Each structure stands twice: as C-alpha cells, then as structure tokens.
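Tutorial handout. Part one gives the primary structure; part two gives the three-dimensional structure as tokens.
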Amino acid sequence: MTILIKNGEVIGPDGPVKQDILIEDDHVSAVGRDLSAPDAEIVDAAGKLVFPGFIDTHTHLDMNTATMHTADDFHSGSAAAVCGGTTTVLDFATQEHGESLMQALQNWRVLADGKSCCDYGFHMAITEWTPRVADELTRMKQEGVTSYKLYMAYDNLRVADDIIYEVLKAVKAVGGIVGMHCENGDLVKVLTRELLGRGVTGPEGHPLSRPDVVEAEAIFRYLCIAELADAPVNIVHLSTARGMEIVENARSRGQEVYVETCPQYLLLTDENYGKPDFEGARYVLSPPLRKEADKEALWQAIEHDEIETIGSDHCSFFLRQKEFGRNNFSQIPNGAPGVDLRPALIYTYGVDAGRISLAHMYRLLCENPARLFGMFPRKGTLREGSDADIVIWDPDWQGTITDENQHTAADNTPYAGLRIQGRAARVYLRGREVVRDGEITKENQGRYVHRGACDFWLK
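Part two.
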C-alpha cells in the first residue's frame, strides 16, 4: 500500500517543517515538499502536526505482583498506547529466581506475541546473577535485548551492591545499559514499620515511608558503583530535586548518566495522598508523588536538556485492588495507568504551556529513547527507510481526563480532572492505520522489536 501524507508540519530535531511523507508498504520512502505518487492514498494533514510514533520506555503490562495481576494485559495496555500515539513500548522481562534470562524472555514474549497492538521490546530485569546468567548476555544481544534493569528496593527483586557492580561491567562489555530503580529498600522497610507502629495506616503513609532522601541515597550509591565500573547508566523514574542534583554533580565529574522521569512527577504532588475516603490510594505508586518544588526542579531539568526520556511507568490496578491495603498502606498495590495519556500530557503542559518546544518533545518521546535503546533510525524519526510509525497530531482538540474516558482497562487514573490540549488524530504503525479520531481501528498489529547497540551521546 502507498500512502501520501500531505500539508502537515513534520516534527523533527529542528522543529516543525511543512513537508509531505510518502509511505510505501511498511516504511517511509520519501520526505519532502510537493511529493506526488499517482496511485497513493492521499491523507490531508493540513493544520496538523506530524510526529514519528512515540516511544514509551517504561511500561508494566500483564504483570503479576506477589498478590495480584495488573488490570492491563499486553492487549489492552498496548491498545491504549496506540490510541495516545505511542507505537512502541519497552516493557520488562523479569527473571524469576532460578530462571535463565532466555527463559524469562520467552515467558514474556508469550504474553505479547500476537496480542500487542503496538510494537514492543523488553528491558531484561535481572534478579539473580550467576556465571550462567553472565554468559547469557551475548545471547540476549543476539535476541535484540540490549538494556537491563536492576532494583535497589523490593525484597524479591533487589540485588546487592557487589552484584550491581558486576552487572554494570558485564553489560558495558556487550554495549548495553542498565536502568536502576533507585530507592533504599532497607530504609523503606524500617520507615514503614515505624509509621504503622504509630498508627499511620492510610495512603498518607506512603510518601512518608519513601521520602526524597531514600531516592537520593540510592542514586548517589548507584552512581558511585557506576563510577567504579566505568559504565554508562540510566536512572528510571527519577522524582526528586535532590536526586537530580546528585546526577548533575556526577555529570560534572565526567560520568555518563541518562535520566528518565514520568508525567506524574511533573504534574502531581503528594498532597493527593491526604484526600478523604481512601481516594489517595489511586496515587500510590513508587517512587511516590513529591513536593511542588520537586515538580519545578524536574521541569527546569527538562528545559535544560538534563532529562533524556519520559516514560509513563504504566502499571494499572483496579480500585477494588487498591482496597487490599485499606488498613495498611504498604499493602496498596503500587502503580497507576498512563500509557495512553503521556504524549497529550507532555504536549499540554510542556509544549502548549510554553515550557518546551515541539523539537524538544520530539527528542524526549521519539529520538532520545530510540537512540538510547538501540532502535534509531528505524524508530524515533521520519526519514527515508524508517518504519512508517507516524502520529498525525491535532493540536486544536480539547478535552478533560476522567476515569471513564481513558483507554486502558483500569477504572481510574491519577490525572482525572486535568485538561488536555491536542490528541493523536491518526496513528500509523509500520504503514497501517491503527487509530483514527483517538480510537483504535486495527488491533494486534504489534511486532517484537529486535534492538541493536545503545547509542551513547552524553560523553
């Protein structure tokens, strides 16, 4: 099939440029002015912005916790993603204790293959490090996995500092990168015990059990270990001004540190935990929501190009599942939906609010994640030969977020009540239209993305 998108403002590293895009089969075959193709389907994008498909670097779909399963599986979560303009997600293939990395990858491929509505790849979450696992890193690279995740919190997931050091060195040797969940798990546990012992059982206890120093200490420790290993690293869902300051200090010493934050830390604060009638439970996610000063510090870091990617950390639960922790905040399942809303939130409160440019949004949601995680220029850009993952964005559309009008399977959103300016009017996945007027038109079109070497540019 041949499609010619005409009259749109194509968004790239230099900002909007009026250009046409010619799609042939699954790829972009030409980008330029006044293109023509006699047999093409013509799509008029006048008055619209044309982005590469957005990339979400941080989702948790079809995930089991110790006590329950997320509201979204790969089908419903990925359908929500494409409705918002996200055409590629990077989820987490988590190694269970006793498993090989290959077994973990196969288990998670089963959850997504043939069911996903957008393209997908996996960061490999390592929970057990042995010589056998270390030997698998080359095989993982052959399988298209070049990024990894470790945890400094959660007893069933976290690894010790010496293992972090060994993993960093081994992953560097194969050209990959390690992302870290930076919270001091021991401090979270003792603070939680203290709070419960004082009778603090509601959602307001959640941020008190994970104050900013818990994140800051873990980031500092992680970067000290990375300095010893001489390895580039990624920090996921950074949420605090103190954490960002530690990153800036490390960079001033020459360390290569990439940072991801999430919309919730840019738009919401910990005041939400005090809402009555257990309403604060919907905001229980980790790291928790922070102070107004932290929000502002993160926006300033974005404006100064000190944050490279924005992921949703989509991890959805039903409100009835949140009730599990009504009498003990530590039992409230951690997570909130957002994979469908992330692009619109960044456009509304970043671009439309005048905090960032269209080119900056392009870097945060398209080019930077594609480069860092080994997909560029196949993904994350619109140029000849790239996958025809395209979002035709309507900047004039307006709406208000409610629990009912989101696209995920969840029955709640922490963003309820926020206004939205702009949405994905049409979305193409490898040349096939999968969304029109904000609703999915073609399901289960996603494919596994075989990723190459990471592209490190902060040197």
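Part three, for discussion. The mean pLDDT is 97. The radius of gyration is 21 Å.
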